[in-house]
Amino acid sequence: MALNYILIGQKIKAIRKRKGLSQLTLSELIDRSPTYISYIECGIKSMSLGTFILLVNALNTTADELLMDNLENTIKVSNHEFAALLSDCSDYEIRILFDVITATKKSIRENRHYIRTRR
Fold it and tell me: CA dist 87 to 28, 32, 61, 82, 90, Å?
């Protein structure tokens, strides 16, 4: 299985932006050029394992999170992302999100037959 460098790059870009880092700042943290960061984020260039580790550490993330779209078992990574999403929520916000997710899950399961019949 070949790695999808476009998806890895998109994940790096999303995490970088979420952390409020510019390409210049990230490039300085890992001692690479901003152009190289841009190439990685666009999937134009692949990176060495060493650069990958530098990015993981600079972004304070996990290798699993960056590779999530390339992995077959993503439950742990999804749980980590979900926990990070909730980390700054108030109790009220968590309760509302829980209610929304519960209702969404119920609706998906109740309407699953529509997917099968439309093909």
Answer: 28, 31, 15, 9, 9
pLDDT digits (tens, 9 = 90+) for 67-93: 887 776 666 667 777 888 899 999 999
Could you tell me the two tokens for 15? 């995490």
- CA–CA distance, 101 with 117 (Å, rounded to integer): 25
Q: Taking every pair of C-alpha atoms in the chain, what is the biggest distance, in angstroms?
A: 54
Structure token digits, residue 19? 């952390």
Report pTM. Answer: 0.64
Distance CA 14, CA 12 (A): 6
